[in-house]
Amino acid sequence: MLMLMLVAAVTMWLRPLVTAQPLCHARTVRTGKVFNVIQDVQGDRLYFQSTTRLIKHPCKKNIALYLGKQVFFTTDNFETSLLPFTIPTSMQVGVPEVTSAHFAGSLLLLVVNHKVYTYDYESNSWNLSLGIKHPVTHVSGDNCCYTGSLFCVVSISWTWWLTPVIPALWEAGLIATSASQVSVILLGMFKYSDHPLNRSLGLSFDYNGTLDIVIAPGQKGILLLWFEKSLLFSHNAGQLVDTVRVKKGDQTLFTSIFEAPITIHNIAVNENELAVITQEDNLYYGNLGIVPSSIIKFADQHIWSEEAALMFRSSGILEILTPLRDAAFAAFDFQKCLVNIQAILMDPELHVGRCNIEFLKGEFTYRMYTIDMHSQLELTALLIPQPGTSLIPLVMVSNPHSLGFQATFYESGYTSDGNTKYKLVSRHFGRPKRVPLPCSLKRATMSTLTVDIANKEISCVDIKPLSTLISVGCDLDKKIVIQNTVSACSKGVLDASALQDNYSFIIEKEFYDPGFQGRQSSQDLRVFYSYQQLGCPLLVYYDTPWKPVVELWRKDRFQEVVGAEYVLLEVNGQFSYSYSQTAKSAMCVSQPQNWTTMIKETGGPFLWNRENYVSCHDPNNDAPLRWPDVQYQILGGRTANQIIFSHNNGFYVFYISIVDPYYSYCQLETVFSIYVYGAFPVQLVSPGVVTVLLISSILGSVWLAYMIPRLLRTAHGCRMKRFVAELYGRCKTVCQFRASATARTGTEPLGRHRSSYGGRSDH
C-alpha cells in the first residue's frame, strides 16, 4: 500500500500542474538600433562552449555577464540591445574560448584559452594577468560588498584551478569559499588553507561528474556544486556537503537530483534563494536555509531553450533571459520573462504552507561591525510569529573558531492585535571563551552573522534572513597614549615656548649609534626637537628605575592601562640606558628576543611587533636559554622589568610597540619623549676622601694656630725670626736695583723674558 501511494505521488508530480496564470510574463528588449547605421563588432568574439551561464556582480546588481554561444556584458541588466562581447585582437588570445569568469570589484576576470585576462569595465581596458605559469581553466572567489568600511575594500580574492594532471585519479580546484578560507577539492572532500580548518579535511561526498561551483553572495560560506545530473549544497564552506532534495509540499519525492528525472540546464542563486531550469522545460525553486536544502517544481510551461539563462532581479523576482539574433543588425535583442515567486507559491496545487512569520527585523542588517580581542558586541532582533504558530530562531556565524557568541531569546511584549513579540539578543566576543590561549588567533578574520528561522516555510519569500558582516580584527579607533601627568614644562625644568622655537639638543658620540647596535659613533649628533609631534617631554629622575604608563584609548575615551608586553627603542640610536632584569631574573624558559637580533632578522629598527614576537615564557618556544645573563628587553606583562638610565641628563625620544599578540589585532605603536634630570657632574674624588681631607685641614689649622706662637718664644724660634728678616732685606735691595735700571734704559736687563699663555679658542 505504501509503495502504491509513493508511485501515485510521483505520478501526480510528473503530470503538468494546472495553473490559471502563465509562469512568467515575457517582453523583448530592443533599443539603440537606428536604420542605415551599421555597427561593427571590433575584436575577437568570445564564446562559451559549455551550457549557458549568467554571472551577476555580487555587489553591483546591474552588472552581469552572459556566457553562451555569444558572450554579452551589461551594465544595465540587459535593458539595451548589445553587441557580442569581444576581446581586442591585440591581446592575441588565439582561440577566444571562455571557460570561466569572475567579478572582482571593478574587474571582470576571464579565462580565455587557458590564460587569465582582466577587463576593467570602468576604464574600458584589458590586461593579461602576469605571474601565472600554469594553464588555467577556472577562476573563482568572493566579494565584500560593505563599501562603507575600510576593512571591506573589495579585494581580488580569486584563485585558479589548474588543469588536472591525472583526471582519473585526481581532480582539484582552488576556490575562495568564504571571507577567511581558501579551499581545494581533493578526492571528493575540501581541504583548507587557513587555521583552524587546515588541520582537517571536510567530510567526503559523492559526485559523478565535473562540478561547477557557485558561491552564494553575502560571504556566508554557502556553496552550490552542480552539473547536469547533480546538485549539492553546503552552508559551511564545504565542511559538510549534502544533496538538494526534490519536494512537493512537506513530502520528499527524491533525496537527490541524481535520482530524479532532471537534467539541469542552468541555476541562479542570490543571498537566500535558489532557482533551477531544466532541459525538461521545468522551473524549480528553493531557499538556502539552515535545514537540508530542497526545491519544488513550478507548473510545466514552455520556458526552456538552449540559450536561456536564469538570474534573480531581486528577492522573489526571477528572470529568464534569452538572447535574440537580429537579421538586420549585429546587436542582439533580449527576451526577458519575469517570474513572481511569491505569486506562484500561492497556487494551491503546490501544497506550500502559509508563511509562519509576520515580522523579522534587526537594525544590524547590511552593516559591518568590528570586534577586537577581548571586546564584545551586542545585537538585537525583533521577531513576531503568525498567530497560532511557533518559531525556532537560530543565530549562526560563518567562522565560529574566531568569533564566539551567546544568544538569548525571550518574550518582549504584544502587538496591537495580540500577537506575541520576541526579542533575540546575541552577544558576540572577539575571542571565544571556550578557546584557550595560546592558540592561532593572531590573524584577523571575517565572520558573517546570520539570524534565521529553522522552521521557516518556503513561502516566506519576503522574510529574508538577517545578515551582517563582523570583522574580528583591528579596531581602527584604538590607540595608545603615554601618560604624561608630570612634564618637564609643568615643573619649570624646560620652557614650552623655547621647545617650539627650532629647539635642538646634542647627543654625545659616546652614547649613540646610528645602526642601533650599541656601538659608539665617531661624532656627536644634533637632534631637532619636534614639539608638534612630541609635545613637552615627560619628566623622569635619572636615579629611579622607570617604565612608562601606557594607556589604551578608543576615539576620545580612555579604556584601560595597558598591561600587555611592549618594547621600547630610542629613535636616534641613543643607548645610555639599560634594563633592570636579565633573562634569568625574568624567569625565561627560552632565549628571549632583543633589539639586536630583531634588527638583523627584519632589516630595520622599528619592525618588532605582534606579528613576529615570540615570548620567552612560551613552553612551545624551543629556543634554548643559552645566555641567561643577557638583558631582558621586554617591558610589561608578567615581569617587573624597568629602564635604568646612566648618569647624565638629557632628552630621549622612544618608539613603543605593543608586542603581545593576544592583546589586540591592531599594531599599537607610538612615539613619545622624556627628559631625564637630576644627574650632577661626576666627582673625581669620592665624598669620603673629601670629608677626611677637610676635617684634617681644620684640625691642622687649629694645631698650627696653637703651636706657632709657642715656638716663636723659644731660642730656635728667635733664630728663625732673624733668618726671615735677613731674607726679606736682601729681596728688597734686589727689587730696588731692578726698578732703577728699568727707569734709566726703558728695557729689562739682558737674559730676562716676558712669559705668555696661549689658550684654545672655540669657534
From TrEMBL:
Ranges for domain CATSPERD Ig-like come to 357-472
Q: Where are the transmembrane segments?
A: 689-712
One GO CC term on file: sperm principal piece
Isomerase keyword on record: no
Q: Main site of residence?
A: membrane
Subcellular location, in the record's words?
A: Cell projection, Cilium, Flagellum membrane
InterPro entries xrefs: CATSPERD/E, CATSPERD/E_C, CATSPERD_beta-prop, Ig-like_CATSPERD
Q: Name one GO biological process term.
A: flagellated sperm motility
* Cross-referenced Pfam families: Beta-prop_CATSPERD, CATSPERD-E_C, Ig-like_CATSPERD
The topology of this chain with respect to the membrane is: Single-pass type I membrane protein
Q: Please, which domain of life does this record's source organism belong to?
A: Eukaryota
Which terms are listed as keywords in the entry?
A: Cell membrane, Cell projection, Cilium, Developmental protein, Differentiation, Disulfide bond, Flagellum, Glycoprotein, Membrane, Signal, Spermatogenesis, Transmembrane, Transmembrane helix
Identify the residues that the record assigns to the CATSPERD/E C-terminal domain, covering every copy.
502-715
Q: Where is the CATSPERD beta-propeller domain?
A: 43-153, 179-337
The residues forming the signal peptide are 1-20
* Family classification: Belongs to the CATSPERD family.
Sum up the protein's function in the record's words. Answer: Auxiliary component of the CatSper complex, a complex involved in sperm cell hyperactivation. Sperm cell hyperactivation is needed for sperm motility which is essential late in the preparation of sperm for fertilization. Required for CATSPER1 stability before intraflagellar transport and/or incorporation of the CatSper complex channel into the flagellar membrane.
Q: What's this protein's name? A: Cation channel sperm-associated auxiliary subunit delta
Q: Which organism is it from?
A: Colobus angolensis palliatus
